[in-house]
Structure prediction request, 222 residues.
Amino acid sequence: MSRALSISVTLAVLVVGCRGEVSTDPPIVLLRNMHFQQRYNSQARSAFFSDHRTMRVPPEGTIGRFPGGANVQYASFTVGRDDGFDDDAVTQGHEPDSPVYVMTIPDRVTQAAGGLEPMVRRGQLRYGIYCTPCHGGVGDGRGLVFLRSQGPDGPRYQYPQPANLHDDRIRHVPDGQLFATISNGVRNMPGYSAQIPVSDRWAIVAYVRALQISQMNNGATP
Prediction:
């Protein structure tokens, strides 16, 4: 009994000692560089720069993460409404107050982009950044993310092949559905509304359509 009592008292002391009391003892730090980094605090004096300012003027041509400032419109952590569009057909890809997707890219988006040609060029750039790793440069679903999962003796790890954008099903979905998929994601694909502005998502849709047209004579059905 004395041994059981001793164990009980010890456990009770340990529990009481873990109540989160403030201690003046220095903490045990295993990786000190995580606590003491070689950095400047805001408004601190710099010994490196001649003007002794740590807060530097951004380099010429720098583009802010939140155009116009990180104000209340970004409370949802999305850049989805930073293009001045405010109707569902543009920002959601479907008709106002209706779940029906718009069939084609809204004209006002194309006009704001300066026409279809510059819009497709912009879409090619954005596609190369956000879509190529998975869907591949030609949209066949064989991007580097998928190819690296395939070893010479079989798959190195299980990774489902991303959608082939030239599949007949995808070629016939409304433009608004493609936009919504980019925005919200589907299955293993994450949504990109937090990374890609509305106008750029539509530009990607335009470029995907251009990719599909380019492959129509390679065995695809119209």
